[in-house]
């Protein structure tokens, strides 16, 4: 029995009443209990939101960066102050353990803070002309209305990583969050409202992805679609955007290798490999998908991984001490099970399987598993598992392992563990990835550019001063002075 309706469509500074015949239920993935119903919007609401964003664009883009930054600062501050409550909402709808959720909210506020600072720094260029009587200026201009589409795995930070730079640059936005996790998006919009965001600058639509996407793709007022999600949907958006030569910026899936060399610090490698693989229960675009370990340290490292995994508590993310929550859906659990079955059929051996969880929990739980003897033909070694399955393969030769690590269409993140500086540079330079972590598995921070190459992304980076570039067009003003 659903008891509540939550307004989730926000257009031109107004929350639309929920039409009870068009709703969608949000469930807690740990208990499968309904949390609330939200509105299920479509083409019409999206068109209205785009109109509102379009009407708000001139005034917002003509404000000074300083004026925009004040609102972003305030939003960042409000978010940080409310991190615990926002974290609880995030955990309820998404499942991740509360400390991770609160950490995500603080990180999300960090993006707003960073772009509050960047808002005043949209520098242009003065180009010395080859003609004596000409002057050439390059002026950055906000691109216009932006359609932002985000996934469920980081329901807070994936939004502010897009909206922070978009708003700082002077763009207005129509946001479509994931249907699994609209509640964090609603809270973020309320924070913007409280921070004094003018009506129409940020608009929110929940509902029919296909219809919302189609309107964003075909409506000429939308100048850029910024998308984070699967490579399959990213390809679809890229194809459809071609009709209008609409700009799309894509942050897509990954298949990150970790390479542990013979000189790696074993304790550090084991702790960080576990943190990378099992953060958000493996549902992270940059989480380790496969571990290559040098034959000489394989037994010792595997034993440490087993010990660490078996010490992790599984359960509801709201319970004290839980490090592994549920997965997002039944389909996600089935995918992990299918990858594990395929690996076992092809000769993998289970090294460790996590603890049991509270039997009363009816949610999408899945035992975390480490397997060894992984071979290149296993599905888990090639496809994004997006769940708690960690395959290990041994290697002996540096060149050979680099070749294996690069043998994928993905190119988001890769990690190496070594204490050798020359090897660090040699290997990091040869890995075909947008990001390489060296004894580090957390490259996502507000001040640095995040993004993939190959089929893991296209368009610009998110984060850092680079993150503003996607939202600014460079206009040339060529002036004859004679
Ligand atoms: P997804 O299925 O591609 O969905 C992402 C978003 O796109 C959702 O809001 C979804 O809404 C929407 N969508 C789906 N079809 C659409 C369409 N035809 N038009 C418009 N919007 C559409 O991905 P996901 O399962 O939510 O997220 C997991 C994926 O995201 C993984 O592959 C992960 O690696 C990737 N990811 C990448 C990064 C990065 O920075 N590179 C970060 C986080 C996650 P519906 O669910 O309603 O269809």
From TrEMBL:
Top-level taxon of origin: Bacteria
One Pfam family of this chain: Aldedh
Annotated transmembrane regions: none
PROSITE patterns: ALDEHYDE_DEHYDR_CYS
Keyword terms, alphabetized: Oxidoreductase
Organism of origin: Ornithinibacillus halotolerans
Any one of the GO BP annotations: gamma-aminobutyric acid catabolic process
Domain Aldehyde dehydrogenase: 16-476
Matches recorded under InterPro entries: Ald_DH/histidinol_DH, Ald_DH_C, Ald_DH_CS_CYS, Ald_DH_N, Aldehyde_DH_dom, Aldehyde_DH_Superfamily
Listed GO MF terms: succinate-semialdehyde dehydrogenase (NAD+) activity
Protein name: NAD-dependent succinate-semialdehyde dehydrogenase
Record has Oxidoreductase as a keyword: yes
Family membership: Belongs to the aldehyde dehydrogenase family.
């Amino acid at each position: 029995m659903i008891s509540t309706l939550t307004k989730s469509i926000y257009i031109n500074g107004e929350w639309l009443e929920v039409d009870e015949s068009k709703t969608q239920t949000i469930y807690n993935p740990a208990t499968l209990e309904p949390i609330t119903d939200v509105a299920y919007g479509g083409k019409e609401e999206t068109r209205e939101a785009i109109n509102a964003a379009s009407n708000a664009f001139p005034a917002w883009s003509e404000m000074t960066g300083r004026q925009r930054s004040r609102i972003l600062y305030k939003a960042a501050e409000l978010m940080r102050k409310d991190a615990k409550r926002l974290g609880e909402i995030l955990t309820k709808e998404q499942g991740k353990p509360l400390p991770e959720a609160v950490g995500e909210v603080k990180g999300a506020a960090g993006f707003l803070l960073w772009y509050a600072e960047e808002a005043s720094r949209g520098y242009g260029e003065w180009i010395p002309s080859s003609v004596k009587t000409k002057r050439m200026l390059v002026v950055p201009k906000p691109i216009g209305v932006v359609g932002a589409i985000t996934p469920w795995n980081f329901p807070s930070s994936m939004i502010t990583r897009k909206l922070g730079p978009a708003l700082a640059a002077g763009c207005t936005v129509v946001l479509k969050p994931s249907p699994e996790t609209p509640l964090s998006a609603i809270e973020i919009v309320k924070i913007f409202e409280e921070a004094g965001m003018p009506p129409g600058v940020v608009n929110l639509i929940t509902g029919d992805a296909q219809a919302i996407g189609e309107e964003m793709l075909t409506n000429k007022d939308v100048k850029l679609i910024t998308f984070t999600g699967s490579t399959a949907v990213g390809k679809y958006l890229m194809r459809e955007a071609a009709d209008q030569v609409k700009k799309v910026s894509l942050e897509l899936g990954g298949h990150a290798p970790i390479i542990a060399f013979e000189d790696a610090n074993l304790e550090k490698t084991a702790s960080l490999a576990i943190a990378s693989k099992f953060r958000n229960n493996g549902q992270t675009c940059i989480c380790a998908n496969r571990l290559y370990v040098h034959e000489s340290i394989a037994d010792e490292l595997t034993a440490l991984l087993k010990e660490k995994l078996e010490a992790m508590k599984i359960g509801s993310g709201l319970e004290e001490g839980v490090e592994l929550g549920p997965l997002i859906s039944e389909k996600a659990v089935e995918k992990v099970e299918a990858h594990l079955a395929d690996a076992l059929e092809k000769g993998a051996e289970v090294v460790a399987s996590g603890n049991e969880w509270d039997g009363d929990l009816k949610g999408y739980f899945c035992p975390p598993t480490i397997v060894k003897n992984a071979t290149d033909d296993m599905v888990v070694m090639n496809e994004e598992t997006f769940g708690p399955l960690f395959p290990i393969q041994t290697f002996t030769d540096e060149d050979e392992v680099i070749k294996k690590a690069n043998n994928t269409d993905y190119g988001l993140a890769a990690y190496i563990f070594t204490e050798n500086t020359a090897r660090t540079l040699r290997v990091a330079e040869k890995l075909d990835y947008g990001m390489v972590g060296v004894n580090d598995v957390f490259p996502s921070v507000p001040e640095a550019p995040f993004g993939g190459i190959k089929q893991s992304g296209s368009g610009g980076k998110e984060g850092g001063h680079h993150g503003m570039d996607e939202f600014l067009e460079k206009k040339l003003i060529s002036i004859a002075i004679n």
